């Protein structure tokens, strides 16, 4: 590496280190002290601070004190903790959906709701990516509710369960039994509980963070119903294993 390249790398490393230190500190410590801790010369530290403020990555909040800036907040908002999983799962779910002539989903449990991260296949129905739906009446939601510890599940079931169709399970005791059955068999079923013209089967993605992800297949309730759920779940579980294995690599 040439001297100019090495100097450039060192300068970038110092800038990033100072950005991280100031952001984590949140303005509690004078910038002069943070600059000294980073082993920077005062003049160098002031120059880097001025650059970061100019780029709105940092902002001055008081005399000699700085915190993360608006541009940094905007960039952080664009970072998805699910990005790698989505990248790996999408082509696998697309192939599964095409083979099954159905719609495949990847979902995560967030804020007591299901967020749909991936939708592939037959683009029918009202669901879309980044949409949130109630957990108690969806297959992905029920398979993830079944993973909750008892105390958290008690809290969830204490809230009202609103019927969306005549088939929606709204009795907490009945839903608790359904979740217990889901844990035993390893998959969940939505039998026209979200919409009268929709059935769905879901399985969890194991060995992932908190086991709070799941995948599903949905389509006509003539096919996606309790009578066919075991066979559909087996194909989903095979895809779930492939996704988990790819993530490990």
Question: Could you list some keywords that capture this structure?
Answer:
249 residues, alpha+beta, Arc Repressor Mutant, subunit A, Beta-Lactamase, 2 domains, 6-stranded antiparallel sheet, 9 helices
How would you describe what is shown here?
- The protein starts with a helix and ends with a helix.
- With 249 residues, it is an alpha+beta fold.
- It is 47% helix and 18% strand.
- The strands form two sheets. A six-stranded antiparallel sheet has the order 5-4-3-8-7-6, sandwiched between helices. A two-stranded antiparallel sheet has the order 1-2.
- It folds into two domains: 75 residues, Winged helix-like DNA-binding domain superfamily/Winged helix DNA-binding domain (Arc Repressor Mutant, subunit A, Orthogonal Bundle), CATH 1.10.10; 166 residues, Beta-Lactamase.
- Strand 3 and strand 4 form a beta hairpin.
- The mean pLDDT is 89.
- It contains nine helices and eight strands.
Per-chain topology:
Elements: H1 3-25, H2 31-37, H3 42-54, E1 58-62, E2 65-68, H4 70-77, H5 83-100, E3 103-110, E4 113-121, E5 132-134, H6 139-145, H7 150-157, H8 172-185, E6 188-191, E7 199-204, E8 213-219, H9 229-248
Antiparallel strand pairs: 1-2, 3-4, 3-8, 4-5, 6-7, 7-8
Helix pairs in contact: 1-3, 5-9
Mean pLDDT: 89
Overall 3D geometry?
elongated
Q: Helicity level, as a percent range? A: 40-55%
SSE order: HHHEEHHEEEHHHEEEH
- CATH fold name of the largest domain: Beta-Lactamase
In short:
The protein is α+β, with helices and mostly antiparallel strands and 249 residues long. The chain has helices spanning 3-25, 31-37, 42-54, 70-77, 83-100, 139-145, 150-157, 172-185, 229-248, and strands at residues 58-62, 65-68, 103-110, 113-121, 132-134, 188-191, 199-204, 213-219.
């Amino acid at each position: 590496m040439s001297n100019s390249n090495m100097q450039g790398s060192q300068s970038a490393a110092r800038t990033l280190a100072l950005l991280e230190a100031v952001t984590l500190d949140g303005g509690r410590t004078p910038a002069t002290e943070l600059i000294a801790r980073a082993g920077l010369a005062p003049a160098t530290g002031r120059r880097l601070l001025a650059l970061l403020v100019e780029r709105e990555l940092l902002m001055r909040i008081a005399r000699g004190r700085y915190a993360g800036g608006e541009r940094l907040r905007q960039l952080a908002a664009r970072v998805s903790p699910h990005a790698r999983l989505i990248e790996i799962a999408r082509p696998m779910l697309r192939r599964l959906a095409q083979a099954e002539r159905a719609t495949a989903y990847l979902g995560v449990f967030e804020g007591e709701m299901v967020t749909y991260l991936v939708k592939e296949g037959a683009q029918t129905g009202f669901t879309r990516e980044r949409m949130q739906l109630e957990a108690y009446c969806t297959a992905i939601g029920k398979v993830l509710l079944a993973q909750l510890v008892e105390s958290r599940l008690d809290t969830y079931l204490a809230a009202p369960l609103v019927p969306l169709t005549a088939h929606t399970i709204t009795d907490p005791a009945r839903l608790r039994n359904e979740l217990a059955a889901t844990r035993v068999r390893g998959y969940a079923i939505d039998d026209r509980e979200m919409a009268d013209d929709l059935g769905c089967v879901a399985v969890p993605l194991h060995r992932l963070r908190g086991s709070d992800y799941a995948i599903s297949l949905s389509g006509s309730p003539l096919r996606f119903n309790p009578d066919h759920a075991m066979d559909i779940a087996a194909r989903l579980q095979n895809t779930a294993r492939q996704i988990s294995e790819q993530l490990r690599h």
